[in-house]
Amino acid sequence: MGRKKKKQMKPWCWYCNRDFDDEKILIQHQKAKHFKCHICHKKLYTGPGLAIHCMQVHKETIDGVPNAIPGRTDIELEIYGMEGIPEKDMEERRRVLEQKTQAESQKKKQNSQDDSDEYDDDEEPGPSFQQPSMQPQNSFIPP
Ligand SMILES: [Zn+2]
Ligand SMILES: [Zn+2]
């Protein structure tokens, strides 16, 4: 199985705000948790699909997606995996993720930023430094 590196958000469930590593797992989760008929336990694919199923098979109306957090129970929204999520919620999610990664990189910066105060002037201008290369040879005096 080849992995294409798409620059995409990590899958998450719009209905309950849970993170997933794989969109396949997310879809399985949605079918099991949010699109499952509470009467016959049939797994549907979307919220509206579930509503239609309950209406046609059991003559029941569903007023919200099961197991969804408050405000995310809209049964009319056709969300499947990461598809169909309202743009404003995608944006909010992106912002939250950005803030998370920013906070993490700031933490790292603080750890490696401590010895910038000391300034050592080690550079000497060349010409003023003389090497004693010529030694006077008068230490040995012949008799
Ligand atoms: Zn969920
Ligand atoms: Zn059913």
Short note summarizing the structure:
This protein has 143 residues and is an all-alpha fold. Helix content is 34%, strand content 0%.
Secondary-structure blueprint of this entry?
Elements: H1 23-34, H2 47-58, H3 87-111
The structure holds zinc ion (ZN) (2 copies).
One zinc ion (ZN) is lined by residues 37, 39-40, 42, 53-54, 57-58.
Tag the structure with descriptive keywords.
binds zinc ion; zinc; mainly alpha; metal-binding; 3 helices; zinc ion binding; 143 residues; C2H2-type domain-containing protein
Question: What does it look like?
Answer:
The protein has a domain at 23-108. It contains 3 helices and no strands. By secondary structure, it is mainly alpha-helical. Helices cover 34% and strands 0% of the residues. The radius of gyration is 35 Å and the shape is rod-shaped. The protein binds zinc ion (2 copies). One zinc ion (ZN) binds next to helix 1. One zinc ion (ZN) is lined by residues 13, 15-16, 18, 29-30, 33-34.
| Tally of helical segments | 3
Which structural category do the helix and sheet elements fall into?
mainly alpha
Q: Beta-sheet strand percentage?
A: under 5%
Instruction: Give a count of the beta strands, DSSP E runs of length 2 or more.
Output: 0
Gyration radius, rounded:
35 Å
The ordered string of helix (H) and strand (E) elements is HHH
Estimate the mean pLDDT confidence: 86
Q: Level of helix content?
A: 25-40%
Shape label: rod-shaped
Instruction: Provide the low-confidence segments as ranges.
Output: none
Terminal CA distance reads: 95 Å
Give the biggest sheet. Answer: none
Identify every distinct bound molecule in the structure, by name, code or SMILES: zinc ion
GO molecular function: microtubule binding; zinc ion binding
Protein name: C2H2-type domain-containing protein
Main location: nucleus
Subcellular location: Nucleus
